[in-house]
């Protein structure tokens, strides 16, 4: 087994313990979207995609338990930054255990630390893949746990944070299984 397959397997094992049931499929789905957005993505970007939310699996923290009102942008941004830093740190430890070089580890840490808000071309790819995956994989789970108001706030946040119109077009083409989610999605993305 090559090193990438080894870390992919290790990350999947850890993420399977997340209190958020959709995290394992979100990890893989985000990775798949990174490869659709950047087919030549290097190993660092691929690892960052798989591990970007690993914090929740290790700490047991979940967004719904940590944040009562995501419409409070200051509190929500602080939570997201702390989550990103924890995820990067946990991923660093895993990569060191698997003898990754310092340069690759530092790139992965940087990408994960920036995955919520982007800021450079590769971090933007990860942020956009994460946003697309939210709509492709997570939104129905989120609705089931949090109801219409919080889901509308989260949809608005995830849609608005995307960094370019092409990503918004991809998101708008995605289909949702639930008519209720589809209605919330259409309302929140047209505001």
Largest sheet: none
CATH class: Mainly Alpha
Cα distance, first to last residue?
48 Å
Instruction: List segments where confidence is low: pLDDT < 50 over at least 5 consecutive residues.
Output: none
Helix content: over 70%
The total of helices stands at 10
Assign the structural class, choosing from mainly alpha, mainly beta, alpha/beta, alpha+beta, or little secondary structure: mainly alpha
Beta-strand content estimate: under 5%
- CATH topology: the name is Hypothetical protein af1432
What would you report as the Rg, rounded to the nearest angstrom? 16 Å
From the spread of the alpha carbons, the general shape counts as globular
Number of domains: 1
Q: Give helix and strand order, one letter per element, not per position.
A: HHHHHHHHHH
- Average pLDDT, all residues: 92
Number of strands: 0
CATH architecture grouping: Orthogonal Bundle
How are the secondary structure elements laid out?
Blueprint: H1 3-15, H2 23-37, H3 43-51, H4 54-59, H5 63-66, H6 73-97, H7 102-114, H8 121-160, H9 165-173, H10 179-189
Could you provide a short overview of the structure?
The chain is mainly alpha-helical and 191 residues long.
Would you kindly provide a written description of the structure presented here, covering whatever features stand out?
The structure is a single chain. The protein has 191 residues and is mainly α. The protein has a single domain (3-136), classed as Hypothetical protein af1432 (Orthogonal Bundle), CATH 1.10.3210. The chain has helices at residues 3-15, 23-37, 43-51, 54-59, 63-66, 73-97, 102-114, 121-160, 165-173, 179-189. The longest helix is centred in the C-terminal third of the chain and has 40 residues, at 121-160. It is globular, with a radius of gyration of 16 Å. The protein starts with a helix and ends with a helix. The mean pLDDT is 92.
């Amino acid at each position: 087994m090559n090193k990438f397959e080894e870390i992919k397997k290790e990350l999947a094992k850890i993420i399977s313990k997340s209190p958020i049931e959709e995290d394992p499929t979100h990890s893989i789905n985000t990775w798949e979207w990174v490869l659709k957005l950047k087919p030549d993505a290097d190993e660092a970007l691929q690892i960052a995609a798989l591990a970007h939310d690993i914090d929740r699996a290790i700490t047991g923290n979940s967004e719904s338990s940590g944040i009562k009102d995501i419409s409070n942008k200051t509190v929500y941004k602080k939570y997201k930054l702390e989550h990103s830093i924890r995820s990067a740190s946990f991923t660093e430890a895993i990569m060191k255990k698997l003898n990754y070089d310092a340069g690759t580890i530092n790139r992965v840490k940087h990408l994960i630390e920036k995955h919520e808000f982007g800021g450079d071309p590769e971090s933007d790819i990860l942020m956009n893949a994460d946003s697309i995956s939210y709509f492709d994989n997570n939104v129905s789970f989120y609705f089931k746990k949090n109801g219409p108001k919080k889901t509308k706030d989260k949809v608005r946040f995830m849609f608005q944070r995307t960094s370019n119109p092409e990503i918004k077009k991809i998101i708008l083409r995605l289909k949702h299984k639930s008519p209720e989610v589809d209605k919330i999605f259409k309302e929140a993305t047209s505001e």
